[in-house]
Design goal:
With 252 residues, the protein is mainly β. It is 4% helix and 67% strand. Strand 6 and strand 7 form a beta hairpin. Keywords: Signal. Pfam families: CBP_BcsS (PF17036). It comes from Methylobacterium symbioticum. This is Cellulose biosynthesis protein BcsS.
Length: 252
């Protein structure tokens, strides 16, 4: 991997959404012709994601990762702000009536990201505020109300060759013991676009689920990179189903 490609690892790492999110134009010093060169001064990355399952759940998230000292392409401190909102339904644990849940969560995390030529590792610690409301009382569901918890998160990204990547994203909050782990592998189908398998495990004191599927990652629309995924989803209450997801990233 070239040194220029290595610089792009942190922009690619959080969601593995491609290489350069934007390019700048400069004149070739010899011919005078304009040429594109990679941007290397990003300080903010905005990730947006949405997931819908056939098990009657739909969630969206927006995450801002900020480099307050240098750039996202260099090792250094990070600030991560995240908002999550969604809705779900399930049969009540006592009456069997359909219960509709609405959830919102906000997180503030502080951390550090280490950048190497073929890898990036980031660790975060902070807190989250989570609110969960139910349409009817369900005595068997303890995940109700609003609370504050400590939260930790980590991102690991490996790029052993320009044609493949491996990524793991994980988080845990003491509020309702909520956890999330996602692993992905990608193999280049053409320049900057990858396809491969993915697996996700998530849950809390009441709910748990796992998902296995595939993703297509890195295709661009303007300054934004996108990823889409689909596969099989299983949760403790509604059992088997399917999921679809879409994610985007823009850095500036």
């Amino acid at each position: 991997m070239s040194s220029n490609a290595a610089k792009l690892i942190p922009v690619f790492a959080a969601l593995a959404l491609g290489t350069s999110a934007q390019t700048a134009v400069a004149a070739d010093w010899y011919t005078g012709a304009e040429r594109e060169i990679p941007r290397d001064d990003w300080i903010v990355a905005i990730d947006a994601a949405a997931t819908v399952t056939s098990n009657s759940s739909a969630f969206g998230a927006v995450t801002a990762t900020i480099a307050p000292v240098n750039t996202l392409l260099d090792s250094g401190p990070r600030v991560r702000l995240q908002g999550v909102a969604g809705t779900y339904t399930y049969p009540g644990t006592v009456t069997g009536q359909t219960v509709r849940g609405v959830q919102q969560e906000g997180s503030v995390l502080f951390g550090y990201e280490w950048i190497w030529q073929q890898a990036a590792v980031a660790g975060y610690v902070g807190f989250n505020v989570r609110n969960n409301e139910l349409s009817i009382l369900d005595p068997g569901n303890p995940v109700v109300g609003t609370g504050i918890g400590g939260k930790v998160a980590a991102d690991i990204y490996l790029n052993p060759t320009p044609d493949q990547f491996y990524a793991v994203n994980a988080s845990y909050s003491t509020q309702f013991n909520a956890y999330y782990v996602r692993a992905r592998a990608g193999f280049a189908v053409f320049n900057g676009v990858f396809i491969g398998p993915e697996a996700t495990l998530l849950g809390d004191d009441f709910f748990n689920s796992w998902r296995v599927g595939g993703h297509l990652t890195g295709f661009a629309l303007g300054p934004m990179k996108f990823s889409v995924g689909a596969g099989y989803a299983y949760d403790r209450v509604r059992k088997g189903g399917y999921y679809t997801s879409i994610e985007s990233r823009m850095a500036f």
